[in-house]
Amino acid sequence: MDYYDNEDNENLEIGLLLEAISVKYGYDFKSYAKASIKRRIRHRMSIAGIKKITEVIERVIYDRGFFIELLGDFSISTTEMFRDPDFFQAMRKDVFPSLQRLPYIKVWVAGCSTGEEVYSIGIMLKEEGLYDKAMIYATDYSDKSLSAAKDGVFSIKSVKKYAANYSDAGGIQSFSNYFTAKANSAVIDPSLRHNMVFSIHNLASDGVFGEMNIILCRNVLIYFNRGLQNKVFGLFTESLEYGGYLCLGSKETIRLSNFSDNYDEVLKDEKIYRRNMRPVSYSQKINDNTAVTPEFVTKGGELIREVKSKIEELDCLIRGESGKDSV
């Protein structure tokens, strides 16, 4: 019988592995889609010649280099510049005009991977005359991906593909103007990095990245389970200015989350939403599991008891005053 004929055993060991990663290194992958995590663990096992997940757990605990390699496997790096050209055309036509009147523009590219989407947005802002008053925050949990994004170095072969996407997205210049050839690579023009900040941020565990006018998180949430998706939508909602835009991938939607009512649909097919003026409700925050901690419950109970005590004291005073008047 194969070692993993019993799927329950495999799932148990994967759970132990993810717990070990969380405790040892502080990265929480327990709410990522199980099928995706399982594929990536098996990929690393195949490369390393490991047959059992228990061996992966041991290697993760005692071999940081191995953990870094596994962390790279978990990072979603399937990306390209101007991926889904229709989306970028829609940004140029339906989103950027409303930003012209703003004194400054803050853009958050969440889960930026190796930077292709970051530079795509930078190019479009430049072509629309918005780049000089914009600041683009590019975040990812992977040091390796962020390092590649900062470098802005791409293969000549990939740049040819990106050029076609750029043209389909309505690009108005020669795409080569944004690169300098270097051996078999193309290096992004340094001027595009002037207004960019690259930073570590884990959507699964880190906090609000506030006062944004645009948040792009495309083709990342499909790897999260429903609970984590809802948590991240709450994070985005609190990070967006009223009237700000949330941009998702083609297979993602906010409509199944607790925060659907906080957004108006700008373009259905391109998955572009706009934050409306409705406040985030108390019940929405309670439904975020991260908000309901033992401390939260304890403090809530203390507050209720304190308010109840004050009401009783006030009631006694009122009855006492009423009694005096009747004498």
List the helices and strands and how they pair.
Elements lengths: L6 H19 L8 H15 L4 H10 L1 H11 L10 H11 L9 E6 L5 H12 L6 E7 L2 H9 L1 E3 H13 L10 E4 L2 E4 L7 E5 L11 E6 L8 H14 E9 L14 E5 L4 E4 L6 H6 L6 H33 L1
Parallel strand pairs: 1-2, 1-7, 2-6, 7-8
Antiparallel strand pairs: 3-5, 4-5, 8-10, 9-10
Helix pairs in contact: 1-3, 2-4, 3-4
Short account of what is shown:
With 327 residues, the chain is α/β, with parallel strands linked by helices.
What are the main properties of this structure?
single chain, 327 residues, alpha/beta, seven-stranded mixed beta sheet, three-stranded antiparallel beta sheet, 11 helices, 16% strand, globular
Low-confidence spans: 286-301
- H/E topology pattern: HHHHHEHEHEHEEEEHEEEHH
Strand content: 15-25%
Mean pLDDT: 86
Helix-and-strand structural type: alpha/beta
Shape: globular
The largest sheet is:
7 strands, mixed
Q: How large is the count of helical segments? A: 11
Number of strands: 10
Distance between the termini: 92 Å
Helicity range: 40-55%
Rounded radius of gyration (Å): 25 Å
Widest sheet, order of strands: 6-2-1-7-8-10-9
